[in-house]
Amino acid sequence: MNPALHPVHLYHIAYSEKTLAEAPPGYLILDNVNSPRNDWREYWPIRRFLIDEDLEEHAYYGFFSPRFQEKTGLSHAQVKNFVQAAGTDMDVVSFSPQPDMGAFFLNVFEQEELFSPGFIAASETFFAAVGMPIGLAPLVMDSRQIIFSNFFAARPAFWRAWLSLNEQLFSICEGEDSALKQLLIFETSYPGSVQRKVFLMERIASILLTVDPRWRVRAYNTFDCAWSGSRLNQFKFEAVLSDALKIAMREQGFHDYREAYSQLRDKLRE
Predict the structure, then answer these.
(1) Per-residue pLDDT at 3
(2) Among the four 27, 174, 248, 270, which has the fewest Cβ within 10 Å?
(3) Is the pLDDT assigned to residue 53 strictly greater than 90?
(4) 153: in domain
(5) 208 in any annotated domain
(6) What percent of the chain has pLDDT over 90?
(7) Is residue 174 part of a domain?
(8) How confident is the model at residue 1 (pLDDT cuts 50, 70, 90)?
(9) What's the CA gap between 71 and 228, in Å, rounded?
(10) In this predicted model, what pLDDT tens digit does every residue of 73-121 receive, in sequence order?
(11) Is residue 229 over pLDDT 80?
């Protein structure tokens, strides 16, 4: 394989002078220090980059928050090497931490619903409004589709699809007042009163990978990344089994896999 066939451009998002000074070696800087729209968090600088820059069609681009290395344990060189080793036929290469948060929920929307009730209903309303009616509650995502915190590198084609859907979210939230807008700008209990729109934005990559089979993804081993700070982090063996069952559910679709998965989850909840 010739790495030159698919260059890898990885950016460290700096949102303060401190995070700018602490950028890990190797990363390019995506400067968000004086962001005029912190309510959009990381979407604002990524959005500006994708709109303003000319992208190389065969290159991979990734935009990572300052805690990326802490959560994945990966250096710039390790990320770049993994992306290049994925081959030239991948659209997305993901690096998703918190394997327990991924494994013990059917999908990333169910996971957020636990922390922010009403998230699924608001998300379904948004998708219906943009012509993508999706029943989110039963949707199955395994470690190949689950992406937290936008920890992925992708080719421009995928970033354009990601941007297109997020721009519709942006347009609704920036537009005239409506019931849907109020659902999306609802302030959650997350520190800093982060609005619901940010958590939906962070799940757009996962929904694209789940509902559109044209996107090819290679996932870094989520179980090698940092686990969550919840009590679920003690059930590592069960997390591996749960993800394997979800892979089987997506690949085979036998009801036996879903029943086994439900029984495993019920035992943990007890």
Answers:
(1) 46
(2) 270
(3) yes
(4) yes
(5) yes
(6) 91
(7) yes
(8) very low
(9) 9
(10) 999 999 999 999 998 889 999 999 999 999 999 999 999 999 999 999 9
(11) yes
State the Cα torsion 217-220-221-227 to the nearest 10°.
-110
DSSP alpha helix (H) spans, 4-138: 17-21, 43-52, 68-72, 76-85, 99-103, 108-115, 119-129
Q: Nearest-CA neighbor of 146 among 85, 204, 82, 213?
A: 204
Q: Taking CA 60 as the corner, what is the angle to CA 56 and CA 52, rounded to the nearest 5 degrees?
A: 50
User: CA-to-CA distance for 131 and 147, rounded, in angstroms?
Assistant: 23
The whole-angstrom separation of Cα 121 and Cα 136 is 9
**Structural domain containing residue 191:** 6-227
Instruction: Please count the structural domains in the chain.
Output: 1
Is residue 208 a contact partner of residue 154, using CB atoms and an 8 Å limit?
no
Q: State which H helix or E strand residue 196 sits in.
A: helix 196-201
Residue that has been written with the tokens 């089979």 in this structure: 213
The reply to whether 236 falls in a domain is: no
DSSP state letter for 155: -
Question: How many C-alpha atoms does 158 have within 13 Å on its Cβ side?
Answer: 28
Residue 212 CA, distance from chain mean position: 15
User: Coil, strand or helix: which one is 9?
Assistant: strand
Q: Which residue has the tokens 């084609």?
A: 157
SS3 assignment, position 124: helix
Distance (Å, rounded) from C-alpha 221 to C-alpha 93?
11
Average pLDDT over residues 24-38: 94
